[in-house]
Amino acid sequence: MISDVSEMTNAGCVQFCPAFGETTANIAKMVGFIENADLDLIVFPELATSGYEFKNRDEAFELALELDNGAEIAQFKNLSADTDTVLVFGFAERSGEKVYNSSALIEPDGSVTVYRKIHLFDQEKFRFDPGDRPPGVKTTKVGRIGMLICFDWIFPEVTRKLALDGAQLICHPSNLVLDLCQKSMFARSVENCVFTLTCNRTGTENRAGRELTFTGGSQILSTRGKTLAVASAEGEEVISAAIEPKVTDDKNLTSNNHILKDRRPEFYKGLE
Ligand code: ACM
Predict the structure, then answer these.
(1) One of 29, 77, 117, 138 is an active-site residue; which one?
(2) Atom 3, ligand 1: which residue's CA is nearest?
């Protein structure tokens, strides 16, 4: 662990409604939120820069950002440095001929960590390439961060692996359309003793022959599943909580139960 990790972190989620295809306007909106939030860590929704409902893979490719060549990522790097804020946001990522549904973790020191969604939801399977690397944990000035993207929540193995790898804060950019996730994140938080920050979007998109309404309800949950902050179903809102990442390092639920060391993997072989 790096030595200058903060004791307390002011962490927030910016729940907003990206306008489909309006990358410049969406980024301008995100910049405004970042400049005004006064937080140490800000999580934005999945595909925050582009919107969600691509008609096809070509459209996703067209609206995707490039990590190395794009002015957009550079802009977020500058903003992270200027405001001393750790940023997490979802974006469509173009890499060669591939296009991923990705999440960027950008730190004030200029480092950029990318997670590419490994569990694609529904039509995403026809628009994106599935993530090609295991999710990892990044030590930042606000704590050790692991990322999920939206539908990854339904695979508890991902959060478990991140917890085993030392994650304290699970940042979870989302575009949720069902009402199942938020309650389930209670379990992800408790069973792994981690903070979870699920940042959902709001609004409706009517493209590609179907209408999707996103369900808001962004939330920050404690290691005991307590709701520290929650957003409404429809509003554009910044929610935040002061959290102490190091409490996640004590995995003892009782004096006789360590939630990671008590596991009996010999009895649940075959999960793969
Ligand atoms: C989702 O994974 N966007 C539901």
Answers:
(1) 117
(2) 175
45 alpha carbon to ligand 1 midpoint, in Å? 11
- Encode pLDDT of 195-209 as tens digits: 999 999 999 999 978
**Pocket perturbation via mutation, ligand 1, pick of 44, 52, 124 by most ligand atoms within 8 A of CB:** 124
Residue 133 CA to ligand 1 centre (angstroms):
19
Placement of tokens 């469509």 in the chain:
92
The token pair that represents 102 in the structure block: 């990705």
pLDDT (tens digit, 9 = 90+) per residue, 75-86? 999 999 999 999
- Which atom number of ligand 1 is nearest to the Cα of residue 47? 3
Residue 49 lies in a domain: yes
If one counts every other C-beta atom within 10 angstroms of the C-beta of residue 260, the result is 13
CB under 8 Å to 241, separation ≥6 — which residues? 10, 11, 12, 220, 228, 229
Q: How many of the other CB atoms lie within 10 Å of CB of 105? A: 23
Provide the domain count of the chain. 1
Is 46 among the domain residues?
A: yes
**Tens digits of per-residue pLDDT, 132-177?**
999 999 999 999 999 999 999 999 999 999 999 999 999 999 999 9
Sort residue 41 into left (φ over 0), alpha (ψ -120 to 50) or beta. Answer: beta
Q: What is the CATH number of the domain that holds 169?
A: 3.60.110.10
Residues of the chain with pLDDT > 90, as a percent, come to 94
Is residue 4 situated within a structural domain?
A: no
